[in-house]
Write the structure tokens for this entry.
Amino acid sequence: MLINRDLASRKDIDRAFRKQLNNFEDSGVAIPLGDILVEAEVISGEIRDEIMAAQDRTGKRKTALDPSTEFSSDFGAFVDLQVSDDRVEAWMRVPKTAQGTTDIEPVKKLIKKRGITHGVAKDEEIHHFLKTCIDPHEKFIVARGRAPSVGKPAEIIYHFNTEADSAGLINEDGSIDFRARGESPFVKRGQLLAEKKPMEQPKSGMDVFGEPLLVGEVDDVPLLGGQGTELSGDGLKLTATLTGQPGIDIKGVISVLESFTVKGDVDFKTGNINFRGNVIVTGMVKEGFLVECEDLTANEINGGIIRIRGDLKISNGIVNARVETEGSVQAKFLNKTNLHGYGNIMITREIMESHIAVSGALTNDTGRITASTIAARRGLSVKQIGTEKAEFSTIKAGADDHIRWVAEKYESKIETLKREMDLIFDKKLQYDDAYNTMHVDIANQTFAQEKLTQKIDFLENRLGEIKEKDEKDRIVKELKELQITVGNADERIRGIFREQDLVQQNSMACESRIEALDQEIKDIKKEKDKIIGRIEADPPVPELKAVKKIYAGTRITGTAASMILKQDFGASRFTEIDTGDPDNPKQLVHQTLNI
């Protein structure tokens, strides 16, 4: 009654019940529930008296309960009935003075009153507990629901080393000898590359109140095979179909790749390189030449255009180049280069006048950075930023520049497809308009033909009635002319039908292309979300560490905070922190390193 009138909450009533039970166990005296609520200042004395009068009860306290009697209608006042936090179990405890009874009806009424309907214990079980219980602290499960099963996501188990190759031997001049990096992963034809453990479907449960306990969905990760692989019929095992180097790209596709070696430079002799595998260039990728492949290992890049799906390993430097890679990058130096990468980047010497955006970390522990803009989502560890005379650099630690670049590339593809779809849709409307115009033309031609046919029928009927030869000759001549006109009209109608069929075919071709473009756009959006999701699975690291010096004028940003250094700093660490201040939630803090 108190709850229905919003005078007390369920929590207030349960708290009062527990206090009543504890007092009864200690003293054998049952304090009325209303008195406890008044004492706790939940209700007033007037409200208590009003409720008790409505229930035809007095305010006199009972001194004790005769254990030889049946439970009274106030049984609920002496029983501690609670439901677990997950609502899967309900249990009760009874005081000593209420033990040994054989009447279970008050228990059943209390269970019903609390709304417990599912998994309720059998009558004989309740009866046995009440009759045999001797410990007021003993819990009896009066109802048990069904706990939900959260399931397990699918899991891919790899049978080859999926980590990027270790860096090669760094020479004294900063160049990298990739021949000294150790053995690369290598598999033979027929070898098992990966297997999938299927997901376990989640199962909903049921609480003691008869309400379903729902669980969220789990991810079903597909086992994806690319070049040089074969997927089993059940989709659970992936094997190599050729001997070569295994790898996994940013989309999670596993491939086995062969290698192609260019002995010398990529120049006019070789032309552009587009190879579905790994490429090794013993010389230089020269200006204006394009290399597209999986992993690329070369001595140097000078003005080349690199678009690869794997790792880029350059023994010396990268100059005046445009680089896009889905893997990591290792090189001696970067100069006037625009680089976007999904993985980590390690430069052993200078980074000069370059623009870099990566979703991994950047390491430049033995060189220096000048006049460059660098965004590394997983943070930076460098030796020196700036010089006395160099232009200022901008360092973005934890920034999402690369993610935005990836999103823009996908959006650009989508916009191109949408423009094509709009053009084809306009063309389809033109075909449909032409089809409708022809339909009207056919109707008009048919109507005119019917008029001619009616006239022919009229003249043919009249011909049988006419006696004069001249009149008959005139009608015969007119009939021949009309029949020729009708024949020509038939041919025109058939021609319009043929043209209409062709227009309809073109319209249907446009409709099919629109549907294909729409599906392609959906696929691109899905791939975009998947790739960005894989990147964002690792949280950003808004931290910059410099082990030697950072010159004044350097701009440092985190995910939201930024600062421009007003003075030179020695060995330092800059980290973005959450301040808890709603007006200034993010702030970059400086820490001096003792090196």
User: Anything to note?
Assistant: Residues 183 and 367 are 28 Å apart (CA to CA). The chain has a mean pLDDT of 86. The chain has seven helices and 38 strands.
